[in-house]
Amino acid sequence: MLKWIHFLELLDSSSNSSSSSNLSSSSAEHLLDSLLPEGLQERQNNEGFAENIIPLYTDKEFSEHFKVPRKVLLDLSTEFSRTEYYPKKDTGFKRISAEKCFLIYVWYATHEAASFRDVADRFNIAISTLYNNNRKCWSLFE
């Protein structure tokens, strides 16, 4: 409630100033800081988890985390890369490898307590990317 009162005060003070059409940059930053929860201002993520950490897992650790042997997941990701569900055209964004797509999908599917945000942060992707990734991987099994 106090954040909204502060927000209204900022709006009122900006409308009373001589340049009422624009908030100053410091006022805008202060306004953004007051409205966004602290967790959204700087999002933590695990850069390189799939690329740097997972390859270091022993086969036993891999199976404990993903509930399937590494070879099964690699075979599935290879099959996935050959389907129409794996994007092959250049979109201007960095493409996620088929292997990482399946690592993400299997991690989400085997960790029932993990939320979309948890998995997206772990693999350093957007929540919308996670949703689209899981939908495409699931299509392989239809």
Folded structure, characterized:
It comes from Rhamnusium bicolor. This is Transposase Helix-turn-helix domain-containing protein. The chain is an all-alpha fold. It folds into 2 domains: 2-41, no CATH class; 49-139. It is 62% helix and 0% strand. It is built from 9 helices and no strands. The protein has helices spanning 2-16, 25-35, 38-41, 49-53, 59-66, 70-81, 98-110, 116-122, 127-139. α8 (116-122) packs across α9 (127-139). The longest helix has 15 residues, at 2-16. The radius of gyration is 22 Å and the shape is elongated. The termini are far apart. The mean pLDDT is 81.
Topology, element by element:
Elements: H1 2-16, H2 25-35, H3 38-41, H4 49-53, H5 59-66, H6 70-81, H7 98-110, H8 116-122, H9 127-139
Helix pairs in contact: 1-2, 6-7, 7-9, 8-9
Along the chain, the helix and strand elements come as HHHHHHHHH
The main pleated sheet reads as: none
Runs with pLDDT <50, length 5+? none
- Please bin the fraction of helical residues: 55-70%
- Report the portion of residues in β strands: under 5%
Return the structural class.
mainly alpha
* Overall shape: elongated
What characteristics describe this protein?
2 domains; 0% strand; 142 residues; mainly alpha; 9 helices
Short overview:
The protein is mostly helical. It has helices at residues 2-16, 25-35, 38-41, 49-53, 59-66, 70-81, 98-110, 116-122, 127-139. It folds into two domains: 2-41, no CATH class; 49-139.
